[in-house]
Each structure stands twice: as C-alpha cells, then as structure tokens.
Amino acid sequence: MAKKENRFRGYDIYTQAIHTGTDYDEGTGAVRRPLHMANSYKLPDDLSQVNYSSTDLLMYSRNGNANQKWLEEKIAALYNADDAIVLASGVGALHALFWTLLQSGDRVLYPNVSYMAVYRMFHELFNKKFGVETVMADMTDLEAVKKAITLGTRLVHIETPDNPTVGVTDIAAIARIAHENGALLSVDNTFASPYNQNPLELGADFVVDSLTKYINGHGDAQGGAIVSNDLETMDRIRYEAQVNVGAVISPFNAWQIFRGSVTFPLRMDRINQSAQQIAEWLEQRENVTFVSYPGLASNPGHELARGQMKNGFGGVISFGVNADDKTVEQFCAKLKVVTFAVSLGHDESLIFPQPSYDERIELYPEKFRKGFIRFSVGLESPEDIIGDLDQAFRAVGL
Ligand SMILES: *Cc1c(COP(=O)(O)O)cnc(C)c1O
Q: What is the pTM of this model?
C-alpha cells in the first residue's frame, strides 16, 4: 500500500487529533465525514481493472471499510507513523500481528507480566497448536532477556507499563537486544498511549494499542490497532490476518473511536495529572501496602519512565491493601464515584481487584500477591475520587 498522505504531519498531537482523518463530505459539504454502515461498495463497470486481494479498493467491509480507513489515518498520525491497521479489538490486533509474523519452529520471547490474552496465546495456544517456541522472560531485567534470547529469535513482545502490575520496561534497550539477535520488537503501548510514549521512536518495529481504552476513552466501543513504518509487513498483516482471518472493525465502532479520539490528548493530560495526585495520596495511607505508579519517585522504574514517557505516566495505578480478597471486594463495592468494573481508560474511574487465586499470581512480584487492586483514573474531579476512596477504605476498616 502506498504511504499515506497526511497533510497535518509535523503538527502537534492536539492539532492532529482534531484534523487528521476528517474532511468535508464531498456529497453534502457536511463538516464531518459520515458513518457508512454498508458492507459492500459499488464495483467499477470494468472488472478487469479490479485487484480483489488489494485492501486499497473499497469492495467489502472485511477487506477494508471507509470508517476504518479514516480512523487508520488518525492512529498513524498520533504515532507519527507511516501506517496503522485498525481491527475489531486490541486482542484481534495482537493476534493479527503474531499470526502474520510467526510460524512453526520460530522462537518468540514474551513477558512474565502481560495482558491475559498474550499470556494465553503464548503459554498454551501458539506453542501447542502451531509448534512455535514460546519463551517467557522478565523484560524488566535486561540480563534475563539477554540470557533468554538466541540468535534468530523471530519476535520479542513487551508491554510497558504492563497490565496489571504497571511495571516499566526499557524499550530502547530491548530493541537493541532484539535487533542484535535478528528479532523484531513489538510493544503493547495501551497503558501509556501515544500521548505519553512512542515506542516506534525508541526502536520498536510494531506497536499494538487497544483503542477500547484511552484513544476511544468513553467506554462505549471496542477496537485495536497495529502501527508501524514497515509497509511491506503491514500489507501482509492486511492480507493474511485482516482479510483472511477476519477481525476487522465495524464501521460504527470505527466511527465512535474516531469521535472519541478528537479529545484524546486533552483527556490524557488531565488523567496524567489526576493519577499522579491520587498515587501520591495513596502512598501516604497506612493500610496501603504498596503503590505501583511510574510517576512516583519511589518507583523502581521512575527514572527509566521519565526518559521514555514524554508527557506523563498514564492513568493506571496498581496498589495493595492489607486485607483478604473478600474485604477488597467489599471495598470496591462501597465506591460511589469509582465504578467497579474491568477495563481502563474510560471517562469514568474503574476499579478491579486482582484476587490472590489468579492463576498467574506466582508470576508477579511478591508484594502483588495479597490485596492487589488495579485502578484506572478517570476524568472526575481528583478530589472527589480521593474522597470516594477514603470513605470506602473507612467503610471496610482500612
Ligand atoms: C485491554 C488491553 C488489551 C486488549 O484490548 P481489547 O480491546 O480488550 O481486546 C491488550 N493489551 C492491554 C495492555 C490491554 O490493557
């Protein structure tokens, strides 16, 4: 596919978030591009000119649809990249990337702490079904990564900050180690978002971002993106994974995410500030056993995060309380401003306990094995959020 023209390239992210991917509607002059809820498009009269395997031709919505393509322009712009592929979910994007890059006999390094579906894909699916050699490594420990990697490793996949412990991994250092061994590097950038971190500028070959989270930001749509400057591989992903496996995004979800993305930098800016304030407040609280947030000076990843995260440290804080699983649940249920639900990056704050019977609990650092809570800071007043946490702590005697 040809390199996408972006006439706002080089402009600030606030300007790009508003102006890229949109235009006047040619038919009506409307100042917004429309939502096209069609699954097929009119073919040219002369079919001899049609390349059916091209995703440039709008023909059938799984091969590519107008709202998807406009959102792809926006996502590529937010990452200052040549191309983006938008699929039905973050997991759909992760799978499309791994499915295209890996084949039997290939070796992949994946992190001991990662999004659940990545763990499942590499712990039990790609290895057992397809004979991919999957090796888990602590990506926050560069010596461990050097030991685990071998020449000819195909892919190293990392996540930073990671879900759910909010640990920080050195993207530039891992990129060097990967490339020295002939491997590609993919980075799940969902927690940081392109407002705070651009792995492509730090040496990564591919970025995956769950648009369901910060870029949409309103808790009402699902989508995921792969972003890269490697146009040849991006075309292969479109062909092998999008068209022939089929996790394409619906026009409606693409339209919603496009709309949400307009205010994305503004929302991130506020979320960065509120999360910092709330993390500092939590750290002072007696029955809070630890606070994992890269913005805290006490965090082991703080210096590294200051170097690779440009505008702030994101909105997810993991913390522990000195309580059993039942008390943690009761604490979450007592909250009034904060919603007791999975996911993150919404307008509203979300809280989700990570119970001690989680099958991966042994993979997390010791302190995460008791009273561990993942908290996604939303756009409410930080004082109201703090007040809410305070009343719920008191209600359960913490
Ligand atoms: C949510 C999430 C995903 C998956 O995204 P979906 O849109 O839910 O499929 C992947 N990685 C991280 C870090 C996430 O938080």
A: 0.97
